[in-house]
Amino acid sequence: MPNRFTHRNLPQQLLKARDALMAHFRPILNHYALSEQQWRILRALDEHGQREPRELCAQCQILSSSMAGILARMEETGLVQRVGVASDQRRVLVRLAPQGDALIDEMAPLIELQYQYLEQAFGKAALETLSAALEGFIVAQAKPVRRVVLPALP
Predict the structure, then answer these.
(1) CA dist 53 to 56, 67, 87, Å?
(2) CB of 67 closer than 8 Å to CB of 57
(3) To the nearest 10°, the Cα dihedral for 22, 24, 28, 30?
(4) Residues 115, 121: Cα–Cα separation, whole Å
(5) Predicted confidence (pLDDT) per residue in 40-83, tens digit
(6) Quick count: other Cβ atoms within 10 Å of Cβ 126?
(7) Whole-model pTM?
(8) pLDDT in tens, 95-130
(9) Residue 69: enclosing H or E segment and its boundaries?
């Protein structure tokens, strides 16, 4: 049977690459009893400061239906704080709690060292090229792309 596809399965490649990369960082996250989602939130708050939950959803690629529960658990464990916006009672901001900030202080050197090990193994230029290509692809999504017209279902 001939191959019906001429293009590579890019979504599958990206998933495999993500999983391969995270395999280098999961032991650190597991050591500190953090889920990948919790780490993405901590890192986003560290890099960008306090954020509204909807902003965290977009930055961390977490569905809003999951975010509330994750933030509640993180608040219970003292990693984040939720504070109301004085000018708008409906809005809430999430920020690092002192314990979350201290955890990042402890983890950052390990994360950075793991990146150095990756650079040694694969080459700094290769990782920079990969990062630039991914960032370029993300930015390019602002450009409209035609979508196929789907056939009517029987």
Answers:
(1) 5, 7, 17
(2) yes
(3) 50
(4) 10
(5) 999 999 999 999 999 999 999 999 999 999 999 999 999 999 99
(6) 12
(7) 0.89
(8) 999 999 999 999 999 999 999 999 999 999 999 999
(9) helix 64-76
